[in-house]
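Exam revision sheet. Question 4 asks you to relate a sequence to its structure. Input first:
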Amino acid sequence: MTAHDALFQSWRLGKLGLPNRLALAPMTRVSATQDGLASAAMQRYYLRFAQGGFGLLITEGLYTDQAFSQGYAGQPGLSDACQAKAWRPIVDAVHEAGGAIVAQLMHAGALSQANRFRDTSVGPSAIQPKGEQMAFYHGSGPYRLPQSMSEAEIAEVVDGFAQAARLAIEVAGFDGVEIHGANGYLLDQFLTDYSNQREDGWGGDIVGRARLSIEVSRAVRQAVGSEAPVGLRLSQSKVNDFEHRWAGAEADALRLFGTLAQADLDYLHLTAYEAWRPAFGGEGPSLTSLARRSLPTLSLIANGGLHEPERALQSLSDGADLVALARGALANPDWPQRLRQGLAFKTFDPALLSPQAGIKASELEPLEAAA
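Answer key, structure tokens:
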């Protein structure tokens, strides 16, 4: 027995068996072809994490339709069979290395920086997004003013998520799907009070604003059936509004988590800059512990600054079932092996994500621990 054995216990994510509690967090790497096809570099990139011992890999956000969902140039998609087939070699390679992989489905909404299908963007309301486009994803200047979505366009979004989920399982062979409802993208725009000023059934209080996330979750579940796990990623902060917190603080969190019990999910993926800290300042509970209080039987994935083993263990104690690493995994694609073998961890180098966030040659080299 070692102090870190809890991180290497098996877990069942819905009906999917995992060898440990360590996951690769989703990270946008803008390394697909112009047509949104997964590339050979992406195959080598993801394979290294599976070879390095991560039991679960969560892909970068994949756009879901050929209308308004694409967010970035170089972003991969799951909007048709060709894009789904391009993921099959990656999925097969991960499986051969002993890992599991789920597809994260994403609609950028008002934060779209580049979309080869449309010259305009959409959101819950015609409100200018905060902040500016991200340079390391090939953007510059303010975001476009989005058009307020019609009922028909909202229905198309739900259908797009469902169709992409079906392609993920039936064509690409993914083990499950994760719905991106975090970080300021479309579902989070509906959830956020200042970006959702609608007065119809898609707005109102935090329960009303969560309706789209629930409808998408139910549609995805119907599309993939009961065998494949379905998850939802949530956050308070956004790529364009890092300091945002839910206005109702802990009360809003508990209402939201209670509402998500209706969504037929297998897991909730909670991300914050430092996941172990109180969600609303002071000495209060973390977001993970609040979710565990409301959803005692749902699997929880915690993400955010957990690359120190003690922090990862603390997150498990706080109620998480799995821990997802981002910067720690980029610096150490063999993080689980290094922990097992008592090897030193490398420090994250910000140059990996600059000047653009595409996959670098150094990320495709053979793993030291696996050599």
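Marking note for examiners. Residues 178 and 255 are 22 Å apart (CA to CA).
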